[in-house]
Amino acid sequence: MAKGSNTPVPTTALRVELGWRSGPGVPDADASALLLATGKVRSDGDFVFYNQPAHPSGAVRHEGKRAAVAGVTDILSVDLARVEGAIERIVLAASADGGTFGQVPGLYVEVTDAASGQALARFDSSGATVETAFVLGEFYRRQGGWKFRAVGQGYSSGLEGLATDFGITVDEPQHAAAPTPTGRAPHPVTPPPPAPHPAPPPAPHAVVPPPPAALPVTPPPPPVTPPAAAPQPVRLSKVTLTKAAPSVSLAKQGGTSGVMRVNLNWQVQKHLSGWGARWGGGGGDLDLDLCALYELADGRKGVVQALGNAFGSLNRPPYIHLDGDDRTGAVASGENLTVNLDHKQDFRRILVFVTIYEGARSFADLHATVTLQPQHGAAIDFSLDECTVPSTVCALALITNTGGDLLVQREVRYLVPERGVSPQRTIDRAYGWGMNWTPGRK
């Protein structure tokens, strides 16, 4: 599509893919969506992005990144049939993290039918220079239906500037007070002295008590209703863990309470080569299992995994719950673990890992992203490195209790089980968990 052109789209579930070519020196980018009524959001809840991944209506979701051979994609799902009637437009935007869009080659947005996979619209954005945010496209209502328009409008003020333009309240540090217009400090103002208390009247020589009388009863004042709490501003900060900077404190990112969602999203190349051709196997879909080894402060140890239906629990030990089992990788949201941070004092350590249940004999040609999203803190994400060994189990992240704080450490450690040794026993040995294992199925 050319910039400014439009095309009808069906009022159904759509997949919106923001993509670009990755490489040395190329900044990361993030997809976001703003649901607008009369040109502005109605509240901060109408902003969908990595720190606020779902709209309250369920119509728009941020599904996360997936690496591919040609580059990186960040996915939004939009169900136009569920969009509230007051919403007139859905703006589809991108923001650069650590650079400008002049350094991001091959930037595009593509809309496909979520059910059939049929491409409905694609806009390739070019000519960017110093922009750090872009409105790539938008859905808008027209004559009872929906259309998609290619926009291509850039901002040099980043995601913060784009969000505030549409009415979002952004969490940002307080600015220093501006100087006076003349540059001189204003004259000090001396407050007036407090008014003197009136002198009490002189007491009479003899006090004659008045006749008893019923004192008037003053009714108690009506209860004071506390004002409603002001809405919290949106946090735009996020943390990407790398080999050079592999760890982060949850407390420093504000993730000290509530729940934390741990998401694994993956994409498998259909045409395998190299290690993939040798170790990749299976003609069926790749079935990955997201798991967690845990050790509690009282010494109890265990595992949360689909194997053996050990799904855990959020409100009793181990305070970790596996949301479900994505058997095919076709589910857009991947696999998810939830950790109850209100019980962080009960954790000693948690090791999040992934195993191959069936469909392949190695992680070769797997392109995956891990995102840890605390309820009240910045998102933490990282990508998996290329696998060059016949591995069926990968340690993803180690979460350790250090003085009441939880430290998240990026691992991305591919392990190769010995013959006859299960992936779970292999990762247990590597991290010294010391558990006994028996065969299990799901």
Automatic annotation (TrEMBL):
Cite the TerD domain residue spans from the record: 2-166
Q: Name one Pfam family in it.
A: TerD
Q: Where do the coiled-coil regions begin and end?
A: none
Q: Where in the sequence does UniProt note compositional bias of the Pro residues kind?
A: 188-230
The record's region (Disordered) falls at: 173-231
Q: Which PANTHER family match?
A: CAMP-BINDING PROTEIN 1-RELATED, GENERAL STRESS PROTEIN 16U
Protein family according to the UniProt entry: Belongs to the CAPAB/TerDEXZ family.
| UniProt-recorded name of the protein | Tellurium resistance
